[in-house]
């Protein structure tokens, strides 16, 4: 079962200078690669945090790509499926395949086991600086827990239907998107945590692999990637989703990243390339070939004017520079 990839957003430069290319690559320790796993860029510490499939957390300097000074490799009780970051508290939460949930405080270099669940973690996201939500495999509940609460203190929302396969939180709007296994999307309000209130639902037709909120020319949209090889853009208004356009591809899209100033969406597929699509028209602007065997996940590096790409079959991270003239 493929883990869901939540939304990424980057602010970069003028569209007229946009010419992405693979600038660098970095090998991550271990032979398991990223069949699961997650990686992110921590801007405040200028550091890449990588969690490959060998149940470790590895830290690299985002400029030199050498191991981060003062940071040792941390060992977990299972491979990370997804991680989420809360900048106010400088804290990451990591959901692991065997059902473990960890909290990692970056500045203090502290790793703490928060929870041992009865099933593997499928998706996890911060809701604010105090609460986070998570899903378990084959569960029909959304779980909400406090960051510093007792391990058994969890509020569960019964979906009363098919299991949810992914979560994505839009902090700017206090909205939580839950993508169900039948392709439906439910939208919840998160302004009265730990309780969630259903706003509405929409049917996308197929299993969603990634979801991304974007705002173009003052209008809000949701971009979804699905197992049926379509990337779709939906107009989000008054909490409702209306389909605008769908773009088909020969490969399955697995990850999305929003380039705000370029008004583009970066799409990573289960093959060795990334496509950049213009919003909201979904016109293809650029295709960048990669060395790895399929994109598992991509992450954005705003200050570096770059995108990091995780290979599905190799322990390789490639870095795409968006503007050649920028250092």
Pick out the low-confidence regions. 11-16
**Domains counted in the coordinates: how many?**
1
Please state the overall shape, judged from the principal axes of the Cα atoms. Answer: globular
Note the gap between the termini: 39 Å
Please write the CATH class name.
Mainly Beta
Q: How many extended strands? A: 29
Rounded to an integer in angstroms, the radius of gyration calculated over CA atoms is: 18 Å
What is the CATH homology-level superfamily?
YVTN repeat-like/Quinoprotein amine dehydrogenase
- Order of strands, main sheet, comes to 1-23-24-25-26
For the structure shown, list the relevant keywords.
327 residues, mainly beta, Methylamine Dehydrogenase, Chain H, 5-stranded mixed beta sheet, 4-stranded antiparallel beta sheet, 29 strands, 0% helix, 55% strand
Protein model, in words:
This protein has a single domain (9-321), classed as YVTN repeat-like/Quinoprotein amine dehydrogenase (Methylamine Dehydrogenase, Chain H), CATH 2.130.10. The chain has no helices and 29 strands. It has strands spanning 9-10, 21-27, 38-42, 47-51, 56-61, 74-75, 80-86, 91-96, 100-105, 110-116, 121-126, 131-136, 141-146, 154-158, 164-170, 175-180, 184-189, 197-203, 208-216, 219-226, 230-237, 240-248, 253-259, 264-269, 273-278, 284-289, 295-301, 306-311, 316-321. A five-stranded mixed beta sheet has the order 1-23-24-25-26, with no helix packed on it. Strands 2-29-28-27 form a four-stranded antiparallel beta sheet, with no helix packed on it. Strands 3-4-5-6 form a four-stranded antiparallel beta sheet, with no helix packed on it. 46% of the residues are buried. Mean pLDDT is 87; it is low at 11-16.
């Amino acid at each position: 079962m493929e883990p869901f990839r939540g939304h990424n957003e980057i602010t970069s430069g003028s569209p007229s200078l946009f010419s992405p290319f693979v600038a660098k690559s970095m090998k991550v320790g271990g032979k398991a690669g990223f069949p699961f796993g997650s990686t992110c860029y921590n801007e405040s510490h200028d550091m890449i945090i990588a969690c490959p499939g060998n149940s470790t957390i590895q830290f690299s300097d985002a400029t030199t790509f050498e191991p981060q000074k003062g940071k040792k490799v941390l060992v977990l009780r299972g491979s990370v499926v997804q991680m989420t970051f809360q900048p106010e508290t400088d804290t990451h939460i990591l959901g692991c395949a065997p059902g473990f949930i960890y909290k990692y405080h970056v500045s203090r270099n502290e790793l703490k086991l928060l929870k041992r669940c009865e099933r593997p973690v499928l998706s996890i996201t911060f809701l604010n600086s105090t609460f986070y939500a998570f899903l378990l495999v084959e569960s029909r509940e959304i779980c909400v827990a406090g960051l510093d609460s007792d391990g058994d203190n969890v509020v569960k929302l019964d979906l009363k239907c098919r299991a949810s396969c992914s979560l994505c939180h839009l902090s700017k709007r206090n909205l939580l998107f839950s993508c169900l296994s039948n392709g439906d999307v439910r939208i919840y309000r998160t302004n009265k945590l730990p309780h969630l209130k259903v706003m509405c639902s929409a049917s996308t037709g197929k299993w969603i692999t990634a979801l991304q909120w974007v705002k173009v020319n003052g209008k809000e949209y949701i971009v979804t990637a699905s197992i049926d090889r379509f990337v779709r853009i939906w107009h989000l208004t008054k909490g409702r989703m209306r389909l605008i356009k769908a773009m088909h591809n020969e490969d399955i899209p697995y990850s999305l990243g929003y380039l705000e100033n370029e008004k583009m969406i970066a799409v990573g597929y289960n093959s060795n390339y990334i496509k950049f699509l213009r919003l909201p028209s979904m016109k293809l602007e650029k295709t960048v070939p990669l060395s790895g065997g399929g994109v598992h996940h991509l992450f954005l590096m705003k200050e570096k004017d770059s995108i990091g790409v995780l290979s599905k079959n190799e322990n390789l991270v490639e870095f795409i520079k968006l503007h050649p003239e920028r250092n």
